[in-house]
Amino acid sequence: MYPAPMETWKPQSRTLYKISVIVVLLLWLLPLIIIMLASFMTADQLNTGGRGLNLPNPFSIEGYRTAFTNQDFMASFMNSFLVVIPVTAISVCLATMAGYGLSKYRFRGQILIFAIFVGGNFVPFQILMVPVLRLTQDLGIYNTRWALILFHGAFQTGFCVFFMRNFIAQLPSELIEAARVEGANEWQIFRRIVLPLVVPAMSALAVLIFTFVWNDFFWSLVLTPASPEGMLAPAGLNNIIKGRFYNAWNVLAAGSLLVALPPVLMFFVLQKQFIAGLTLGANKG
Amino acid sequence: MSRAYRLAPWLFLAPAAIYFFSLVIYPIFGSFWVSFHDWDGTTFQCSDGRTLQELAEDESCRRVPLMTWVGLENYERFFDKTPRDAGRIAEYWSGVFAGESPRWPRLSVETKVVLNNIKWLVLFPLAIPIGLAFALFLNQTSVWIRATKSMFFFPFVLSPAVIGFVFQYFYDPSGPLEGIYDLLGWDSGVIGDQTRATYGIIVAGWYPQIAYCMIIYLAGLTAIEPEQIEAARLDGARRWKLLRRIILPQLWPATFVALVVTTIGALRSFDLVQVMTIGGPGRGSSDVLARYMYQKTLFDQDYGYGATLAVILFLIMLVFIAVFIRQMVQQED
């Protein structure tokens, strides 16, 4: 292990290390601690200049109440689930099939197709903006959640194919060959042999996609600018803060924490899947 | 091989490929096409060439954009002021080297945007060494440190828009940094000042990115074989030497992924700028291509020029995408 394990250190170094970890952690979390404190302050306290590292005085949930009772913000918050869940399901399922097709068969153009999937992941959203916007207008889904579902489903499918193809490629091919020799057809092989083996990868992927899509801001601004019940929570928050609650710091603070909550909860509950998903491919050759 | 075997991969691939190609790959060409035109985003004609006014009252048709072909005009517009601005910047620096204290010249928005993109490209990747430092700092195995690692990491799952709000508050001139601002004489804080805004936004961008790089490196450190480290230790390699000779080379795959993701992230920066400064203060002082394009297209209704900005951004990114894909394909062989 590098650096040397703590157990081998001198006792003083160990104590020093523990203290420094706590200090660094507090500094690291400082912006979040400050925003958390602000979320429990009254508008009065914040506007009279108490925007530093102060305790809420009086303690107030005014900011949360304002955010919760704002219909537009709440609509976008609830809508986020209605967008994120189908997008996650669509992209993970399509990509599992595609990843299998790309990794366990040999055919011409295979690498090229995979490369396009991977490359597509990295294109700037802006190069897609006008055509995708036009497409949703033609389809009559502009300013509805369907526009976001349609686009995010496609875009995330690209990332999922990248992920799934690399995961399935690592699975031993012997099982598949054996099943084929025994007369299983191609769909049965996928359904009975491959699918059970990739369930852990699918769940890791689902956690990641949930977070990525939940956090989207750009596409809500582009595809659902006038529809609070169609856009996602970060854009909903932006709307109220840049609009009616301009300079209402406690609403900004409380709203930010509310928007952050679902992915943060998800991360702390499903940490293992999350990190497994994120680091796949980062440490193999 | 049987027909079923030859057909199967295409069937498995088809739904994802058709969906992805039609919404993510095909539109790229659409933007190229629009970039050679002038279009306000609201003028349409019928697909058969008639104008909308010519339609009978109860008649409808498939509407297509009514765009004017302008060739490379939009691109010329983008680079129009580049020579002039380059001259001014050169003049500024020659002044600086001559020991004078010249004023930073007035530049066109396009030049400012490109310079800001360069600042992002250069400074944003500093998240990588910082993330590595965090990973080395925290690479221990006790239970409490494992909990600490997730506290260090979780800013990564925050929405960039939320990070933007958090730092907007953090940077507020009468916020927690007020004392420091007083000391430095920074009356308008960080993001309220034309020369500092971009740097302030980049630092906010580091926050989740450092967390990401840290986690990539922690996974990389775990994957290094302990025997190798022990062997190097027996050979007398310690601390820096061990890090430089053994650990860093072993971490190359992690570094590569961090580099790609961070570089692409630097060029993609939209959310933070939009939330924290909307490109300002003033015209374009903290703007970047990704955001300026959005503004030009949807607010100034200059779709052709917006598409041109997107194409320029895309071509810059294509360099990095190509490097990544080449490396990946080489690994396959």
UniProtKB/TrEMBL annotation, chain A:
<feature type="transmembrane region" description="Helical">
    <location>
        <begin position="189"/>
        <end position="214"/>
    </location>
</feature>
<protein>
    <submittedName>
        <fullName>Binding-protein-dependent transport systems inner membrane component</fullName>
    </submittedName>
</protein>
<comment type="similarity">
    <text>Belongs to the binding-protein-dependent transport system permease family.</text>
</comment>
<dbReference type="GO" id="GO:0055085">
    <property type="term" value="P:transmembrane transport"/>
</dbReference>
<feature type="transmembrane region" description="Helical">
    <location>
        <begin position="146"/>
        <end position="168"/>
    </location>
</feature>
<feature type="domain" description="ABC transmembrane type-1">
    <location>
        <begin position="77"/>
        <end position="270"/>
    </location>
</feature>
<dbReference type="GO" id="GO:0005886">
    <property type="term" value="C:plasma membrane"/>
</dbReference>
<dbReference type="InterPro" id="IPR035906">
    <property type="entry name" value="MetI-like_sf"/>
</dbReference>
<keyword id="KW-0813">Transport</keyword>
<keyword id="KW-1133">Transmembrane helix</keyword>
<dbReference type="InterPro" id="IPR000515">
    <property type="entry name" value="MetI-like"/>
</dbReference>
<keyword id="KW-0812">Transmembrane</keyword>
<feature type="transmembrane region" description="Helical">
    <location>
        <begin position="248"/>
        <end position="270"/>
    </location>
</feature>
<keyword id="KW-0472">Membrane</keyword>
<keyword id="KW-1003">Cell membrane</keyword>
<feature type="transmembrane region" description="Helical">
    <location>
        <begin position="77"/>
        <end position="100"/>
    </location>
</feature>
<feature type="transmembrane region" description="Helical">
    <location>
        <begin position="112"/>
        <end position="134"/>
    </location>
</feature>
<dbReference type="Pfam" id="PF00528">
    <property type="entry name" value="BPD_transp_1"/>
</dbReference>
<feature type="transmembrane region" description="Helical">
    <location>
        <begin position="21"/>
        <end position="43"/>
    </location>
</feature>
